[in-house]
Design a protein that fits this description.
With about 375 residues, the protein is mainly β. It is built from no helices and 32 strands. It starts with a strand and ends in a 6-residue tail after the last strand.
């Protein structure tokens, strides 16, 4: 080959990346590669660094004699997540990640889990709780196989609260609304948690004894301030409202308009059983009692001032915000709350790993 030479001056951000020319390693960036002008034209330059995606670029021809071509590689970090596969014997158990961060029924996989150590608890009625800590490595799948040990001793916990209507969890598993008796609990310690909008979350450990009921009477502490809640029903014509939100995984495309998918929905469990396509609707002053599901509630001669409702999501555990104010975690209940027909309200449900659900609008007395 002739002695005429050109150069590729390779830099990167961050520095210290391994520089390759046509698959051959030359050194760490910044690095200048010498190329003969008479060499086979066309070269691929790559830069690699641990924890970052590989950068690669093709350059046609060769540098001219004495020419220096500057090459700059911007390196982007690799998303360091992994998976946890959980199975159990027997199958069909509830697996909880990091004390309620995520939940599944075995067998199943917790996806996109951050690297490092995590706790997995596996429980099934009639068996002792299985708990283990497991490490997640980037791009890998860690396996948990829980062999559950039968427990032939059971007891119950009776939980009452002041006020009533708090969401009750035993060992992070939702058990309904207080006041409530939770039966068929394995003998031993269990964590009881109460959540209610406008009040501080409450949690304590309770001991269950064989063939006995443990009684808990809990007074919830109100938060410092509580903005008005927005759900309404006529006081003389009670309507219990059940709101069910279906959250969409972030990796999926943007969800279709409400009328093209099954959730979210609001089901008014009154005699008309009207099924609404969204949380907020614009209705005229006509009476709606033909079950057309057009988003309007039945007409009432008495203006609505308060409401009772329960908000659910699939999956549960979503944070609920009303007018940007945090209200609690689904499933969530409201009782006898006021409304203001002159205001515009918004609701948002947020859960890590899912697209947030939002809606907004005004509320007329007696309508949603």
């Amino acid at each position: 080959m002739g002695a005429e030479k050109g150069y590729y001056k390779v830099s990167s951000d961050p520095t210290g990346g391994s520089v390759f020319l046509d698959g051959a390693y030359y050194g760490l960036s910044p690095y200048t590669i010498t190329v003969y002008t008479t060499a086979t034209p066309g070269h691929t330059i790559s830069v690699q660094k641990s924890g970052y995606m590989t950068w690669s670029q093709f350059y046609s021809g060769n540098p001219a004699n004495g020419q220096t071509i500057s090459v700059f590689a911007t390196l982007y970090p690799v998303s360091e997540t992994g998976n946890i596969y959980v199975n159990s014997n027997p199958a069909g158990a509830s697996a909880v990640l990091d004390n309620g961060y995520a939940q599944l029924t075995t067998p199943g996989t917790f996806s996109s889990v951050s690297t490092g150590w995590h706790n997995v608890q596996v429980s099934k009625s009639g068996y002792l709780v299985y708990s283990t800590d497991i490490e997640v490595k980037p791009g890998g799948t860690s396996n948990v196989m829980a062999t559950l040990v039968p427990n032939t001793q059971y007891g119950s916990i009776s939980v009452s609260s002041n006020p009533t209507g708090a969401s009750l969890y035993v060992d992070t598993i939702y058990q309904g609304i207080t006041n409530q008796v939770v039966s068929n609990l394995a003998v031993g310690s269990h964590t009881v948690t109460l959540k209610k909008s406008g009040y501080q979350d409450y949690s304590q450990t309770a001991t269950v004894n064989n063939a006995q009921t443990t009684y808990l009477s809990i007074t919830l502490s109100p938060l410092a301030s509580q903005p008005p809640v927005i759900l309404t029903s006529p006081p003389h014509h009670p309507v219990h409202q059940s709101i069910s939100m279906v959250l969409i995984k972030e990796k999926h495309a943007r969800p279709a308009p409400l009328h093209h998918r099954t959730g979210p929905r609001i089901l008014f469990n009154g005699p008309e059983k009207i099924r609404l396509p969204g949380l907020f609707n614009n209705c005229d002053d006509r009476s709606r009692n033909d079950n057309t599901g057009d988003g309007c509630s039945p007409a009432s001669s008495t203006p609505a001032t308060t409401a009772s409702a329960e908000i659910y999501s699939q999956p549960s555990g979503a944070d609920v915000y009303i007018n940007n104010a945090y209200k609690g975690v689904t499933p969530l209940s409201f009782e006898n709350v006021p409304i203001d027909a002159t205001k515009t309200y918004s609701i948002e449900l947020r859960l890590a790993g899912y697209k947030a659900y939002t809606d907004s609008g005004s509320i007329s007395p007696g309508r949603m």
